[in-house]
Specification:
Blueprint (H helix, E strand, L loop, with lengths): L1 H13 L7 H18 L5 H16 L9 H10 L2 H13 L3 H5 L3 H8 L1 H12 L4 H8 L6 H10 L7 H13 L1 H12 L2 H4 L11 H18 L4 H16 L3 H25 L7 H31 L18 H13 L6 H25 L4
């Protein structure tokens, strides 16, 4: 009888119920909520499904992310900056840079949206974070998960803040369709939202090929620390545009991209353990504030361009200056079409959107250069 009781006690001691605390159960509920958003409402399921499932597993079995656990090895690829760089390769291979080439002024809108990053940096310092931690947190304002992970790893935040930063960044990326529209509508009039923009000029094949090469040379010569991100982004786009490496383009934009999303998403989600503390809550709040400021800055600069061009620029495309490609551009299109169903802003918004990707990578490189990290 004692043997049976002892065996049952041992089995009971091995269940998750015996080893978890109330915070884990809250995070399990959060994971289920994210799954609901992804599956029922379609909020970026490619991101939220692996992230939320990794979160679910890690909060039932913490050992899965511990050293030697399955997700530990995935997570090391995050810390070593391998997966974020490969994500940029895939993004470059999937994205048409033509709208940015056709309308170089889009760079200004992408730059304006980076204001959210730099404002978040100073806010984070005011809230008690150190310089490097503040820099790593601030990138959330660009709505760029890979760059957030990349910079956090480079600045030595892998064992402390990378988990909360990555989860916050990817969560806000997925929630772009929820967060941005209220800000965009608040800062624009219905008349501005109805502005129709002229069709973009055709972009030649030579321009498309030269663009990634020239951008790589110029940006990396000025700021070598951007090479891993900007270089891989432009390499992926060169695959797409040169027309002689179709197999590499298909691999980078499909099979490789989706493999990396699975590994990165599940490992990021698995870091969401013991999140209910003051530092994590500060990061979540700072990320949201930075994202809102970045969106607002892009829209406000779009209004300035609208005035300067006598109504030829729809301010809504400024919100696409954050780095969430192509989600932010789709939101610009959606809000514009709500004001006027015949208004098509998607291609115009892709210019600032691509510029935002480059701008966020440059911001990360700038912080690395400031702190002497390579």
């Amino acid at each position: 009888m004692d043997y049976i009781v002892s065996t049952l006690q041992n089995l009971a001691g091995q269940t998750a119920f015996a080893n978890l605390y109330w915070g884990n159960f809250i995070m399990i509920a959060v994971a289920c909520f994210f799954l609901l958003l992804a599956i029922k409402f379609g909020f970026e399921p490619l991101l939220l499904v692996p992230i939320s499932f990794g979160m679910l597993l890690a909060n039932m079995f913490p050992g899965i992310i511990a050293e030697g656990g399955l997700f530990h090895f995935f997570y090391m690829l995050d810390e070593w900056s391998i997966l974020p760089s490969l994500i940029f390769l895939g993004v470059g291979a999937m994205t048409d840079f033509g709208p940015l080439i056709a309308n170089p002024k889009s760079f200004l809108l992408g730059a304006a949206a980076q204001f959210g990053i730099y404002s978040a940096y100073f806010f984070a310092i005011l809230m008690g974070f150190g310089d490097k931690a503040a820099a790593a947190i601030s990138i959330i304002g660009g709505a760029d998960g890979p760059t957030s992970i990349f910079l956090a790893g480079k600045l030595g935040m892998g064992g402390t803040l990378m988990g909360p930063i990555a989860v916050a960044a990817y969560s806000y990326m997925a929630l772009v369709p929820v967060i941005q529209p209220p800000v965009m509508k608040l800062l624009t009039t219905e008349k501005e939202r109805k502005i129709k923009m002229e069709q973009l000029r055709p972009v030649s094949k030579l321009e498309r090929i030269l663009f990634p090469i020239v951008v790589t040379i110029v940006v990396v010569l000025i700021l070598p620390t951007t090479a891993p991100l900007v270089g891989m982004l432009m390499l992926g786009n060169l695959f797409r545009e040169c027309g002689v490496v179709k197999q590499l383009t298909e691999t980078a934009s499909n099979a490789l991209m989706y493999i990396v999303v699975i590994l990165l998403g599940t490992s990021v989600g698995a870091t969401a353990q013991s999140f209910l503390n003051v530092s994590t809550l500060k990061i979540v709040v700072l990320g949201l504030v930075a994202f809102i400021i970045g969106t607002a800055a892009g829209v406000l600069f779009g209004k300035i361009m609208c005035i300067a061009t006598h109504g030829k620029v729809n301010p809504l495309i400024g919100s696409a200056g954050v780095s969430a490609v192509p989600m932010a551009a789709r939101v610009s299109q959606k809000v514009g079409s709500e004001a006027d169903p015949t208004n098509f802003l998607l291609m115009h918004a892709m210019g600032p959107n691509v510029a935002g990707v480059i701008g966020t990578a440059v911001a990360a490189g700038t912080f690395m250069a400031i702190f002497g990290v390579f």
